[in-house]
Amino acid sequence: MATVYLADDLRHERKVALKVLKPELAAVVGADRFLAEIKTTANLQHPHIVPLFDSGEAAGFLYYVMPYVEGESLRERLDREHQLPVDEAVQIAKNVAEALDYAHRHGVIHRDIKPANVLLQDGKPVVSDFGIALALGVAGAGRLTETGLSLGTPHYMSPEQATGDLSVGPATDIYALGCALYEMLVGEPPYTGSTPQAVLGKIVTEDADSVTKHRRAVPANVDAAVQRALEKLPADRFSGANELARALGDEGFRHGTTPGVAGARMAVWRTLALVATATAVLGTGVSWWALGRSDRATPVTRFALTLLPDVSAESSWRGLAISPDGRTIVFGDEAGNLYRRDLGDADPVPIPGTQTAWYPFFSPDGEWIGYVEQGQAVLRKVRLDGTGGQTLAPFRGGTRSAAWGDDGFITVSSGALEGLARVPEAGGEPEEISGSDGPLLTWIAPIDGIRAVLATQWSEAREWNVVAVSLETGQRNLLFPGNTPRYVASGHVLFWREGAIWAAPFDADQLRATGDPIPLIEGVPSGTNALAQFAVGGDLLMYREGSATLVPTWVTRVGNTEVLDPELEGVFTNPAVSPDGSMIAFTYSAPGDNSIHIWIYDVSQGTFAPLTFTGRSNRYPFWSADGTQVGFSSPLDGPDALYTRPVDLSADAQLLVADPEETLYEGAWTPGGGLIYRRGGNTGGTADIWYDPPDAAPAALVESAATEREPTVSPDGQWIAYSSNQSGQREVYVRPFPSVLGQTQVSVGGGQSPVWAPNGRELLYLSRRASGEFVLIAAQLDTDRAFDVVARDELFPWGDFFVGTALHPQFDVSPNGRILAIGPSPDLEAEGRYLVVLGISTELRQRVPN
Q1: In Å, how far are 472, 532, 603, 678, 774 from 528, measured between CA atoms?
Q2: What's the gap between Cα 534 and its chain centre?
Q3: Which residues are within 8 A (CB) of 205 and not within 5 positions of it... i.e. 6 or more apart?
């Protein structure tokens, strides 16, 4: 929590310990609140408590001053000697208990008792940082946990701390002291594990061994006192620290329960702790979390998790599954061997007999895993312990999707079928589901309690869309552009689009969305096969971390790359280079921030600053011809409309154009001061291109039964380019402007994301191959007398370097011809690191009301 300096107190000519709070912690806590709360600890005067000399703020830093204690901490001594003599260990514990009793009677709880906070001065223990944790907790309130910072050390956390209870009392300090005494006697804390989540999982689900089991010389009363201090329920521990001190000196003290009672108490804790805690290292500090209690809404908490340290996260593109209760994760390694990882366990466990297993999915009871065995092209199932392995059916066509329903059938999608089929969970030939024929469906997800599934549909227009499919009739309901849908029992659909997980309210009975989707989590990667790297189970969401790995990158026409600025971090999309190339606008989310704003990067100065501050979803920036204004789409005052703001922030954002009946996106100014833009299309319907001239009302410019997107104006203002699926697949077209009479198809075999080169004689776009991979094409143009495509030059495979989306260009071209794109950081480490959200239902209810 702090950096500690040995300092000279010049006024009193003495050595002191000067502790300066970490800046990120100080920013969350706030100076006034922290300094007000820490006054409580300044009044503690006890021979076994290190006093607080001073506290304050200097140059924006919060600090507090304590005496310099010569000697060592109990932690350092235990690291050296491992175990202490019994009498000495008991005496240290009694002295610390006396200090705790004094503090508790003055209304102060330490909350972080551990050997590192017990200093040995001339052999006598003194407790440091007394009440600092309380001051931080009170001052920071709920905002502390939002940063990824939390108070406590896992080996000495009480069960109530481990399960997220912020209102802890004296019993928490008594528990921690019992842990410290246990370690002094045994040589290690009562609960150990290779990871913090393993330790905290044991704290809430297991009983500690008796001290005498490991060290017979420990008196029975000492063992009994430790047992009582470590009781799971606070009410079953000592009522005060003074009672613990007396028990340590009372040879007749005994404590214990019958096995039946102990089991009942453990059952209570297993009910309260839905999932053991997990660890998070999120840049600013370390957090220890739990899923919360069953008698109230699960608090929203986040943590990081590495599946296997030596397994590339790329292997998770073959599938990631979470059990229906949210307790168990199943994933594969590079070779396709499946592993299970319970959140309360330290390490993953291989599932025997699962070779070349891809795309796992859980049974409704969470006891079985289904998967595709790629080598044999069959559907199989196996219990989590590896027993009962069985081939269920041939998986014709090699498609990779199945969902296990609660009706005894597994729904499958196969390239050999025109639609869906079902397989009995006991095995058998696939039976086609009547009426489900149509474009290819993949990445099927069950909808709890309903005979229907969500799926990704690969349309004839070569676009991914989220659909809901009735298993009774086979009817498909188109929901949104996107892929990899997942149903959450709170009544929401999650899906991937534009590098983010989106969320929308969903009526499962009607199989339709009841509101527009919003971007929930930015910076989530997806494979070219449209399998986004996230999964949902119970109240747990898990997704591949991508926010720090995709950065703005310059690229030459032959594919040579250079990162724009190695210091930039966050989630970048929609780059737009200013007309003179001096500045770049981005849609941007800062690390740890789910809001989306427009930011401006100054190329010459290397500065990066926000243009927008209000609203949660400002996107699609575009420049005025003189480079003084940036337009963008935002729902500032209702549905998405187009706004503009001066780059120098000399005025607030001003409305450009709004439509009471439809959302507006993707604007572009014309040289004459007009505005073209896309109307609609972000919620699954069609989209058209409209024009708002300087002296007339807005009107449709390119309107059809198809979907037109990505409008852009040539540098001379004579042509507009856009993409449309009017031919049955997405292609890039150009029309004259403003007459728009006549149309020329630029792309061949599919195209999207058109971007004009500054000279106006070249149009760059992405073409999607049959495999689903993107390639960057430069179309050479002749516009002297009419519009003609002279050549189409393939530059390089886009997916090898950069992010490509189906909805908006993710690159731009500078005046000197260099391409600016969003690409992977060269420092990216391909580890299986994920971020986990516990309480996803709570977050969805708060942010996406039904």
Answers
A1: 31, 9, 32, 26, 8
A2: 9
A3: 266, 269, 270, 273, 276, 344
- Sign, Cα dihedral of 203, 206, 211, 213: negative
Omega into 738 within 30° of 0, i.e. cis? yes
CB 731 within 8 A of CB 775: no
For 836-845, letters b (16+ CB in 10 Å) and e give bbbbbbbbbb
CA separation for the pair 423, 412 (Å, rounded) = 7
The residues that are catalytic are 112
Can you tell me the distance from the alpha carbon of 426 to that of 839, in angstroms, rounded to the nearest whole number?
34
> CA–CA separation, 539 vs 537, rounded Å?
6
Single-letter residue type at 583 = M
- DSSP for 619-669 reads EEEEE-TTSSEEEEEE-TTSS-EEEEEETT--S--EEEE--TTS-EEEEEE
Strands (E), 703-806: 708-713, 719-724, 731-736, 744-745, 752-756, 762-768, 774-782, 788-797
pLDDT mean over 513-531: 75
- Give the model's pLDDT for residue 146: 38
Which H/E stretch holds residue 836?
strand 833-838
Supply the angle between the helices 241-249 and 220-229 in degrees, to the nearest 10: 160
Give the mean model confidence (pLDDT) for residues 672-695: 85
The Cα 312–Cα 314 span in angstroms is 5
Q: What is the tens place of the pLDDT at every residue in 7-48?
A: 999 988 899 999 998 776 776 677 777 777 777 777 888 999
* Alpha carbon distance 155, 158 (integer Å): 9
* pLDDT at position 96 over 90: yes
Instruction: With beta carbons less than 8 A apart as the criterion, state whether 179 and 230 touch.
Output: yes
Q: What is the mean pLDDT of residues 294-316?
A: 59
Return the amino acid letter for 173. Answer: D
Distance in angstroms (rounded) separating the CA atoms of residues 803 and 500: 12
Q: What is the pLDDT of residue 377?
A: 63
pLDDT digits (tens, 9 = 90+) for 390-443: 999 876 544 557 899 988 999 988 654 557 888 999 998 888 887 777 777 888
The CA-CA-CA angle for residues 352, 355, 357, to 5°, reads 105
- Mapped onto helix, strand or coil, the DSSP state of residue 89 is helix
User: Bridge-partner residues for 537, per DSSP?
Assistant: 540
Place of tokens 């009372």: 250
* Surface-to-core class of residue 224, CB atoms within 10 Å of its CB (0-12 exposed, 13-18 middle, 19+ buried): buried
823 contacts 479 by C-beta, under 8 angstroms = no
User: Sheet containing 788-797: which strands, arranged edge to edge?
Assistant: 752-756, 762-768, 774-782, 788-797
C-alpha to C-alpha distance for 523 and 158, rounded to whole angstroms: 35
Return d(Cα 642, Cα 647) in angstroms, integer: 16
Residue 530 and residue 399: Cα distance in Å, rounded? 12
For residue 812, the SS3 value is strand
- Contact assessment for residue 96 and residue 48, using Cβ atoms and an 8 Å cutoff: yes
Cα dihedral 152, 157, 163, 167, rounded to 10, equals -70
User: Average pLDDT, stretch 216-228?
Assistant: 94
Residue with token string 């319970």: 342
Q: Each residue of 807-832: pLDDT tens digit?
A: 688 899 999 889 999 876 554 444 44
Task: Determine how β-strand 378-383 pairs with β-strand 619-623.
Answer: unpaired
Per 3-state DSSP, the chain is made up of helix, strand and coil in percentages (nearest 5) of 20, 35, 45
- Phi–psi pair at 829, nearest 5 degrees: -100, 125
**Which domains, from first to last, does the chain contain?**
69-289 (1.10.510.10), 301-546+831-847 (2.120.10.30), 550-824 (2.120.10.30)
Residue 472: CB atoms within 10 A of its CB come to: 12
Q: Which residue has the tokens 């998986």?
A: 395
